[in-house]
Amino acid sequence: MIKFLDLQKINLKYQQEIKEALMQTFRSGWYLLGEKTKSFEENLADYIGTDHAIGVANGLDALRLIFRAYIELGIMNPGDEVLVPANTYIASVLAISDNGMIPVFVEPDINTYNIDISKIEQKISPKTKAILIVHLQGRIVFSEKLKEIATKYKLKIIEDNAQAIGAEWKGIKSGNLGDASGFSFYPGKNLGALGDAGAVTTSDKKLSETIRALGNYGSNQKYINIYKGFNSRMDELQAAVLDIKLKYIDHENEMRRKIANRFISGITHPQIILPENPAAQKEHVWHLFVIRTEKRDTLQNHLAEKGIQTIIHYPIPPHKQAAYKEYAHFSLPVTEKLHNECLSLPISSILEEEEIQQIINSVNMF
Ligand SMILES: *Cc1c(COP(=O)(O)O)cnc(C)c1O
């Protein structure tokens, strides 16, 4: 069987290095806010190109902390609106509503699956304070037009970069395109930890200091609390693993890109819509390879019979979740269409040549 994602196989590639780093940390007797986190934060900031990186407990916290910090700094307020793609993982939306802010859904572009930048301006109100862009599936969404809109209406651009670490837009890495960015190192992400971890990158010094304090009980100095913060720290063991895997992320992403290109040239089924390959290949790191068909469920069963495990990202959009019943009446037809038709094929650096061919053949036989 071809697993959707074989984390064991991916991590085994780095076993020797990881083992040494984990043992070093174990023996050091220092498990939080130590040298490993500091080193990973420095290396991540270097890699992304920002002045600061702050390790936090997970990706959702990274995003929640960004909004909370803007509130503490008086730049945003509960009740303010944040534009967010309707087609995203629910965590993007939770980060907004958790801070008492209002998510305003914007429909995706049917070709890129990312927020439709041409539909942003009509959703802006006097209460709008930010645009949360999500580089969904690993594909960057950004443009000069987006920057112009943000400048014109004085909006912060915040990136949900959980799925696109390593992607580049005109030589600038995702995570360095807006004012602040949240990362997830959930095990299945392109850069995955051995548990939960996340980070914020920004070049805004005040924001970075506020986020660091907020994630540490609102304290920058032991037992002196300036904010009503919470506890959201990256631990030393995760930082040790991530610091090693960060060195190989470009290679991992390049392998994904090669497989995506094989799928795009190999899958020729007339009823299956392939994801668009951006002209600038570096704009995509293929966290997911998502195909579409009106017969999605039949295709999924067909592939399962051929021994290929697939996943639906995601079966229910945020506005149709019970958690957000207040938005259930919204009409977001493009988002709903994508959720009904999408199917993610296995894609990761450890797929063997025969497996890639088997996936292509099985899809074409549908
Ligand atoms: C994974 C993910 C998150 C949340 O990250 P966690 O580390 O699981 O909290 C947020 N947004 C998107 C788009 C994601 O894919």
TrEMBL record:
Q: Which UniProt keywords apply?
A: Aminotransferase, Pyridoxal phosphate, Transferase
Q: Name one GO molecular function term.
A: transaminase activity
Indicate the enzyme's highest-level EC class: transferase
- Tree of life domain: Bacteria
| Keyword flag Endoplasmic reticulum | no
Q: What is its EC number?
A: 2.6.1.-
Q: Name one Pfam family in it.
A: DegT_DnrJ_EryC1
User: Which PANTHER family does this one have?
Assistant: 3-OXO-GLUCOSE-6-PHOSPHATE:GLUTAMATE AMINOTRANSFERASE, TRANSAMINASE
Q: According to its UniProt record, which protein family does this protein belong to?
A: Belongs to the DegT/DnrJ/EryC1 family.
Task: Give the protein's recorded name.
Answer: DegT/DnrJ/EryC1/StrS family aminotransferase
